[in-house]
Amino acid sequence: MLQEIVAGNIYVFVLIFCRLGAAMMALPAVGESSVPSRFRLTIALLTSALVVPILGPTLPPIPAQPFHMAFLVISELGFGLALGMMVRLIMSAMHVAGTIIALQAGLAAAMFFDPNQGGQSVLVSSALTFLGIGLVFATDLHLLGLQAAYDSYVLFPPMQAPSFGDFADSAVRLVADGFALGMKLAAPFIVYGIVFNVALGLLNRLMPSLQIFFIMQAPQIAMAFVVLGLSLGAIGLSFTTHVEGHMAQFLAPR
Q1: 8 vs 144, residue with greater confidence
Q2: Do β-strands 111-114 and 119-122 pair in parallel, antiparallel, or remain unpaired?
């Protein structure tokens, strides 16, 4: 009896760890390459151990065939990775907005390595992405992510084949919504860039011998920071509302 209890608990823990650990690999903030792997592993192990008493009764019994066990593990890894990537796509709006803002502010050449994207990125985009992650934790929206991971066992039970069509449709919709929100967040800078460049064009026509674009580069950046300071509160509020609304789609109905 003791051997069966221990084997059952190990089986439940490993099965939960496959889904939650795979999600931790793709989640924003926790799943970045700059975060030590031991830290991510510790969080995944502790989270899995905490939910074992809750999720254990809902999981299927230990499969008798090795093929069924392998299918169960692979499907759990797939569900976890899909969940983490969906959350990362929700966070992509800040990166889009930062890229557009940098282009309009004349800061497109200011680039450095962004651990969130795994490559070079403009400075404003990285700053807004880190701001978005900070807002998620400050407003406790990360708890919605944990609730979504728990509810995923209701929406996507184990031993069920993944619905690739639904995942693809959700990914396309999240990418489209993230790009649309990024355009909306950067709308003041798009208007500012159009007005500023039209004014520079008129000045250049009036004084062709003056290097107007070189002279006005510093005022362009300074005015862009003023606009950013005035619109930063609205950007944060719109982004948190976007994250909350899309994360609610992954919660089971109650």
Answers
A1: 144
A2: antiparallel
